[in-house]
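Holo prediction — adenosine-5'-diphosphate.
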Amino acid sequence: TIGNLELKDPAGFLNNKFVTNARSGQRFSIFDPARGSEIATCPDMNVEEVEEAIQAAKKALPEWGQKTARERSVILRKWYELMLENEMDLAKILTWENGKPLAEALGEIRYGAQFFEWFAEEAKRLYGEIIPSPAQNQRMIVIRQPLGVVGVITPWNFPSAMLTRKFGAALAVGCTVVTKPAAETPLSCLALCELGRRAGLPEGVIGVVTTHAHTKAVGKHLCESRDVSGISFTGSTAVGKILLKQSADTVKKMSLELGGNAPFIVFEDADIDKAVDAAILSKFRNSGQTCISVNRLYVHSSIKDEFGERMRAKVAKFNMGSGFDKGTTHGPLITEAAVQKVHLHVEDALKQGAKALVGGDFDDKDSAASRIGYFYPPTVLTDMKNHMRIANEETFGPVAGIFTFETEEEAIELANSTRMGLAGYFFSKDMSRCWRVAEKMQVGMVGVNNSAISSEVAPFGGVKESGLGREGARQGLEEYTQYKYINMGI
Ligand code: ADP
């Protein structure tokens, strides 16, 4: 029990009830990443249970879809209020299973809640269209209808906000959902569902299948089911591609928020202090585990040393620790495997000539087995080269690599030299350059002289292999609706 939220045996969630025992008879463990110790277990549900959730969502669809937009809006609004009333409890659950510092967790809960508020309002604005008819005896009308049952698969890095962003839009327009949260962080999802139940969601509108061993089979079943009309996924590009392929035979609508490899360009005319702060915010939030985190810092060669030094000085003051400790500024990574991947990227860079301004290796050189928790020291590397792994793969950890460039054309070419295209950032005081570069960056979101770009009112999403569709904003409703054109002969 955390405060007002009682999650007795952590469980799945079907028909507004927690399911404490999986048919498989198996359970899987959830770990505290700051200690590496088990904090709870969840039932390991399988294909039978996801099918049950799909049928419950299908059954709930007509009633939920036929409610007035205002009726759905009232429930979403209530859910928003309940999230805020229980924000500290939700934040604690989040810090517990994900590791991020409590203040950051609280930030995610508030940010996440705003999607319910936003979509409670947008629910009422699902306008259609009347097209001036070219024929005298016809009238042409376009209405928008809910997609149907939607499969929702979410990652562990924002276990609460990634769900509210999807639930808010889906439920606002009258869809029902079957959810598979990440196995590392199912508790935040379950806590959210409990509040949804209290807010008045009818049975079957949301189903949650907690699973670890059956992840692939459950995902495949969601993709191949004829009763599921769309998939909304946030996670890696590799898994996104699998889901896209698996969904081809049933021609599903896909909303995919996949990996990024964000460039951050600092031109010679930039405000260096602001650029350093923005780079740090974007690079080290959630210890670098966000898909819009800066992955490649391109700094003009004339200011590279100054930029590196200012960044080093700030990063050296970070305080790594448990998210519950007051002085902690940065928490652990999600798993030991994540730590190893980050270290591999750093070692690769160092071996090929990069220099560590700060970090670059474990503080104590103990073996992984004797270290406590999944920590990796915040690292700033300089003298990076374009063939290093960090330049080409998403590192997803607290490592900032500084590359240099000479001209604007070169910087743009480097920024675009990846198959990813989620977010991109740059700093410059030259107005014309700001327009030029923003338009040329091959990404779905650009931060110009700013790196705090996420907002429930703005469309989040990528181009190239970073995904399909947009979340949040007015555009977020598109993913969960389809147009119907009615031609009325008179
Ligand atoms: P990450 O690297 O962030 O863990 P993943 O893409 O592996 O990214 O995970 C995101 C979500 O996708 C998680 O809920 C995970 O369990 C789920 N997932 C992973 N593999 C599959 C799969 N083959 N089918 C369906 N879901 C999957």
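READOUT: Residues 204 and 303 are 57 Å apart (CA to CA).
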